[in-house]
Amino acid sequence: MAEFILKFLAKKSTLIISMILVIITFILVMLIINPMIDGANGLGLIELQLSFDKSAGIAIVNTWGENGINYFNKWIFSDYIYAFSYALFFASLLSFAMSKKGILVEEGYKNTLFLPIFAGLFDWLEDSMELMFINNQITYSDQLFFIHSIVASTKFALIMITVIFLVIIWKKK
Fold first, then answer.
1. 10 Å Cβ neighbour count for 10?
2. What Å distances lie between residue 83 and 87, 100, 161, 167, CA to CA?
């Protein structure tokens, strides 16, 4: 089964379809939906993810206003789709690169496929925690908010490590 998944992810068609999906969801989430939520450039959501302090998080959400909170609640599903799409894209890109370099079945490299998958899962967890926080700001635990930011930071770290592995794999002879 694992062999089938690796070969499916390494297909050029899987890579192209996942790339199209990630581009579409990136444009929708980062350039359209997030700016609608924070009423600015959309970076308010990333600021929230990395704020680590509940009172700072509340201050960020307060700048969005009621409309921003309503947009967040209405469109949060799109971030779950975005997380799935970039996890699939990066896993496919890793598989494709490993296939081209003839190292797809090497155990050390094969395990790198878990990096983008875990990043997507951490993103889903972060989205769920944000949804609970935004709709229960007063009663939401300070510690849980801090953990939410650790989850978000871990997601970003896993994405960066994935990119580093991609560079390493592409440079491999």
1. 20
2. 6, 26, 16, 22
pLDDT in tens, 41-67: 999 999 999 999 999 999 999 999 999
Query: What is the C-alpha to C-alpha distance for residues 121 and 30, in angstroms, rounded to an integer?
Result: 19
Q: For residue range 10-44, what is the model confidence (pLDDT) as tens digits?
A: 999 999 999 999 999 999 999 999 999 999 999 99
**How buried is residue 33: exposed, middle or buried, by Cβ count under 10 Å (0-12/13-18/19+)?**
buried
Q: Is 102 exposed, middle or buried (0-12, 13-18, 19+ CB in 10 A)?
A: exposed
CA–CA gap between residue 71 and residue 98 (Å, rounded): 40
Give dist(CA 72, CA 56) in Å, integer. 18
